[in-house]
Structures are given as C-alpha cells and as structure tokens.
Design brief:
- By secondary structure, the chain is of the alpha+beta class.
- The protein has a single domain (25-199), classed as Inorganic pyrophosphatase (Inorganic Pyrophosphatase, Alpha-Beta Complex), CATH 3.90.80.
- It has 3 helices and 10 strands, in the order E-E-E-E-H-E-E-E-E-E-H-E-H.
- It has a 5-stranded mixed beta barrel with strand order 1-4-6-9-7. It has a two-stranded antiparallel ribbon with strand order 2-3.
- The longest helix is centred in the C-terminal third of the chain and has 19 residues, at 150-168.
- It is globular.
C-alpha cells in the first residue's frame, strides 16, 4: 500500500504529473466534456476551473478536453508547427476519446497518445493532442490516428477550426488548421512541451 499522499489539493497544471510513461501515455486533466454547453478553463492562479464563456453555437466539444500537466507550449512546440511565430503560452491541449459516456470534468484521464492536430491561433502554435482512454478496451486497436474513423477526426478538426468563429459571429477566423499528424509526431510534441515547461518553470 502506498502511504504517501497530498495533504492539500495540488495545482492541476503544476502539481500533477504528466504520467509515468510519457510521451506514449499521459495523464490528461479534463476541463470540459462533450456534454458541456459552457467552456471552462483552468484558472492559472488558483488551479480551479473558471467559467470562460457559453459555447458560441450548438456545436459542443466532440471529446473529453483538457490539458497535460507540466507541459507548456513555448519555442520548442512552435518549432514543430509550420509558420508558428511562438507557442500560445498555455499547457498542451489534449482530446481524449472514450466509447463510454464520461460527463464530469476535473478528473484525471490516463490516455494513450495516437496523434494530433496542428493549429495556428493568430500565428501561435495551439496543438491539440488526440488520445484514447487507456482502460477503454474498445480502442485497444488504435495505436495511431490513422486507425480511428475518419469521421471522428473530421469532427474534431471542424470543431476547433470553427469554434472561435462560432463564438464571435465574425467572418474572420483567427484559427488556422495546419493539418493532422500521427502518433510519432504527437509524441515529439508532448516531449517538446515538457521541455518547454521545464525551461519556463525551472523551479517547479
């Protein structure tokens, strides 16, 4: 029995770990679910979830969505995205697929990295890692994004490619979808974000 424990709630970004088998497997901290009509984001100062805004249209997040703790989108992540001027300065985003309904946030979802989507947000790298829930045997076959149904990936790409436009109603969309990539490149992005984190927060 492991007798060590945190006496106080750790900060989800800085106090939790990225996982014990990174970058192949990661622990994802979930901020929003596919059933949330409101977008929540981690409050960087307190570690609690903050209400960001209602979803701008009837389109809801297509997967569990959150970030990988102790990651940071800085120069190394930006170097892996064509035409990125810099990283977006946030933890690395992740989408986690599960065939079961998971309708609560503020949970840790152990996941296997299978790919990702390269996005530019006003020129900043804003990658979305795609992963499957470790314990979900329905997805045992999925080792790479190419193994997932094309319709699932298209739905994720469409959501992130349009959600800011949906929010503002502005025809100008600051989000540019550069493309998707497989598991090998996704693992490189995760590893780069962990190095960016250590450089940005050397005392953590």
């Amino acid at each position: 029995m492991n007798s060590s424990f945190d006496r106080f709630r750790p900060h989800p970004w800085h106090g939790l770990g990225a996982g014990s088998d990174t970058p192949t497997h990661v622990d994802a901290y979930i901020e929003i679910t596919p059933f949330d009509a409101v977008k929540y984001e981690i409050d960087k100062a307190t570690g609690y979830l903050r209400v960001d805004r209602p979803q701008g249209s009837s389109a809801l997040p297509p997967t569990l969505y959150g970030f990988i703790p102790q990651t940071y989108c800085g120069d190394e992540v930006a170097s892996l995205t064509p035409r990125a001027t810099e990283g977006d300065g946030d933890p690395l985003d992740i989408c986690v697929l599960s065939q079961q309904r998971i309708d609560r946030a503020e949970i840790i979802a152990p996941a296997r990295v299978v790919g990702g989507i390269a996005l530019l947000d006003d020129g900043e790298a804003d990658d979305k890692i795609i992963a499957v829930l470790n314990s979900d045997t329905v997805f045992d076959y999925a080792k790479d994004i190419k193994h997932l149904p094309e319709a699932v990936i298209n739905r994720i790409v469409h959501y992130f490619g349009t959600y800011k436009q949906q929010m503002t109603g502005d025809k100008h969309n600051a989000i540019e979808v550069v493309g998707s990539y497989g598991a090998e490149h996704a693992r490189e992005v995760v590893a780069a974000s962990m190095r960016d984190y250590r450089r940005q927060f050397p005392s953590s």
